[in-house]
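Colleagues,

For the teaching module next term, I've prepared a clean inverse folding example: a structure given as tokens, and then the sequence designed for it. I'd like students to try predicting residues themselves before seeing the answer, so please don't circulate the second half yet.
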């Protein structure tokens, strides 16, 4: 047990002790008047003080408002901010309730952007969404964002650009193999690749 010092500094021990209390105790002493009521208060919030909670929530709102995020991204961001357990789940619930975090919207935006900007095929988009732990339902919804005519045109564009790297001395079989592997890396389906290769090389 700490002894109360005597002399001119005798009144400062309580202040020093208070400053070094854990947040679970500190949270009972400091209350923020504008704290979000959906965040639980009290001893169960054992990691973050109320004022820090509000700051983190503001930061996460800005993070999600800047662009669509998936749950995995938001969880990773909160963990980097040293938010864990029930506290993390409560903040996630608030962001979902405010429609700042929506995995179907994220999946649709991801598929639309990766196809139009990077010309990815369905297989690669699906793989990348699964890496982010997106549900099968959201992936199916994401595929609805891809227009079939645009999809075929993008594959044709991908293959035509690749033909610039083909040697005219290569036999037809080697040219087809190179184009096929390139289109498969982009994530397109093999039957569609085969028919589009024939179209590109026959012209």
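(Answer key — instructors only)
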């Amino acid at each position: 047990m700490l002894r109360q010092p005597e002399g001119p500094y005798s009144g400062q021990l309580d202040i020093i002790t208070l400053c070094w209390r854990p947040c679970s105790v500190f949270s009972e002493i400091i209350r923020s008047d504008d704290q979000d009521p959906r965040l639980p208060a009290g001893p169960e919030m054992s990691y973050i003080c109320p004022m820090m909670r509000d700051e983190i929530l503001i930061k996460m709102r800005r993070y999600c408002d800047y662009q669509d995020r998936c749950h995995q991204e938001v969880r990773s961001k909160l963990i980097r901010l040293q938010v864990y357990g029930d506290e993390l789940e409560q903040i996630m619930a608030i962001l979902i309730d405010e429609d700042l975090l929506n995995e179907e919207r994220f999946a649709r935006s991801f598929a639309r952007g990766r196809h139009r900007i990077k010309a990815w095929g369905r297989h690669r988009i699906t793989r990348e969404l699964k890496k982010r732990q997106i549900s099968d339902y959201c992936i199916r919804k994401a595929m609805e964002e891809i227009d079939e005519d645009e999809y075929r045109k993008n594959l044709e564009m991908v293959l035509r650009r690749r033909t610039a790297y083909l040697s005219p001395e290569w036999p037809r079989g080697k040219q087809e193999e190179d184009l096929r592997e390139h289109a498969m890396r982009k994530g397109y389906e093999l039957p569609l690749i085969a028919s589009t290769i024939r179209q590109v090389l026959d012209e």
